[in-house]
Amino acid sequence: MDIHNIGFISEWEDDLIWCPSQLERQFTNPITKKINTLYCRWRHSDPWSFSFYQLKPYFTVELGEGLSEYSSIKDIHTFAEKLLLEYFRIEFY
Description:
Elements: E1 13-15, E2 21-28, E3 35-42, E4 48-54, E5 59-66, H1 73-92
Antiparallel strand pairs: 1-2, 2-3, 3-4, 4-5
């Protein structure tokens, strides 16, 4: 299994109009081969939170928090993708 190829199947969907702000990107889970969603959420002055989830059967995995409300969207995307890759590196090995 190549955990370095997460297999993103969508571009980022950015919903930044309201609070909480949300960013999502779908990917193929390299372990289960099911479609999951990488999810980033920001609320008020809290740091961004990062997780991923699967709908059927439903589960969610918290990846952590980081970055501030002043971070660029590109930096948030990159940070989230690195957290996801690190999660699967640890899970696999």
